[in-house]
């Protein structure tokens, strides 16, 4: 009689296959989440959808996968400017955008100047995180070059 | 990918199972490499060469 032992997979071919299987499972799961959210959106509207905890899971996985794919696109890009230069340009553009949004908000009826500063701050923070991450990745790749 | 793994393994007097155990993979993986249906990593190629006392050239080199 043959004894089947369950042990940690070391075979590289099976590890690869396992990853491919996970990809299929992830795809199905995402389709399921989108389906459920779509259903809630139709029955309960936008607010109902956003109150659903699945919405949080969906946003979180989207953000995580976006950050992980930055890792790949940074390696693929051909750059003319130095990392520091691109970082500074992005920062200046982001500051401009958040300032404009802040000014527009504070001049909108029903909002105070404090609201404007608050919104601008949030926009700036949301932008500064990915920009710094891309800068960090580019720096890492620059250091690997030689 | 074509290779000379089958010949080298038989010369070393090993079965697929024995070679698989030596390099730490499953028998199916060895079988697929011999048939040219699986593209092994360089690491696994080296492990196979060490197990069979051959060089990479002897087992995996194919003329273009």
TrEMBL record, chain B:
Gene3D superfamilies associated with the record: lambda repressor-like DNA-binding domains
Keyword DNA-binding: yes
Keywords, comma-separated and alphabetical: DNA-binding
Range of residues in the leader sequence: none
Domain HTH cro/C1-type: 5-59
Xref: InterPro entries: Cro/C1-type_HTH, Lambda_DNA-bd_dom_sf
Keyword Cell membrane: no
Stated name of the protein: Helix-turn-helix transcriptional regulator
The organism of origin for this protein: Geobacillus thermodenitrificans
